[in-house]
User: Which sequence fits this backbone?
């Protein structure tokens, strides 16, 4: 991995391994690298290989989903000098509850005596890392988040929306190897039960909100205002993908 080129991909030059830089790198990654599942629908296997992640994200200026984005981001942070570990997370769904182990990959970063949850691979989530301190409200440009203690040493991330606590996912503090996520990575990209196989999505944070493209709609939020464009053809999807995200079909 070429650290300099990766940092250029997200609009940065040299950075230090401190809290301020971690927050900056996190934000910049979200502003430049989209969350997307296009390869799943373009019949391109996603392999848990950091060099392939780097080629896709940096060389081809694409995005990816959690294993790719956080897998690459984890190595970038380590190359800068941060102490990190990948952790397994179980995503919450209203119908199924919490998913299985390795459902999602996130990162814990240790700086001095403080640990942070970093996650650039969950789509619409925090703009900056969360301090791993339970039961305190942490205000982020994307909302108010709280970590709650769960069973067997796990923590749960909750998003406070209109006074209600909405679970995002639970995670353990145990470090994991990237290859431990292989079985769930295959499930996510091949199983008809995976929501990733149900339709295409490409989404990125912007300076004023977010823009998201699906098979049927292009949604832009800016300063709290939301606009929706119906996507009624493959040609329009491809044009929006190119014009709004810089991704050419089958790139």
Assistant:
């Amino acid at each position: 991995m070429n650290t300099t080129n990766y940092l250029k991909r997200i609009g940065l030059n040299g950075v230090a391994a401190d809290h301020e830089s971690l927050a900056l790198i996190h934000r910049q990654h979200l502003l430049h690298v989209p969350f997307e599942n296009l390869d799943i629908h373009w019949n391109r296997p996603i392999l848990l290989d950091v060099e392939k992640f780097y080629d896709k994200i940096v060389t081809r200026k694409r995005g990816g989903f959690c294993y790719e984005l956080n897998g690459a981001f984890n190595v970038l942070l380590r190359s800068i000098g941060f102490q990190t570990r990948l952790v397994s997370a179980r995503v919450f769904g209203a119908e199924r509850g919490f998913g299985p182990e390795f459902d999602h990959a996130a990162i814990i970063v240790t700086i001095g005596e403080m640990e942070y949850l970093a996650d650039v691979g969950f789509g619409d989530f925090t703009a900056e890392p969360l301090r791993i301190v339970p039961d305190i409200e942490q205000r982020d440009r994307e909302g108010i988040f709280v970590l709650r203690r769960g069973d067997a040493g796990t923590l749960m991330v909750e998003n406070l929306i209109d006074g209600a606590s909405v679970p995002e996912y639970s995670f353990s503090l145990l470090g994991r190897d990237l290859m431990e996520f292989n079985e769930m990575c295959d499930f996510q990209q091949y199983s008809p039960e995976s929501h990733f196989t149900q339709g295409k999505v490409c989404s990125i944070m912007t300076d004023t909100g977010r823009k998201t493209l699906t098979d049927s709609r292009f949604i832009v939020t800016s300063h709290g205002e939301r606009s929706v464009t119906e996507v009624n053809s493959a040609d329009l999807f491809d044009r929006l993908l190119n014009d709004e995200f810089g991704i050419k079909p089958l790139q």
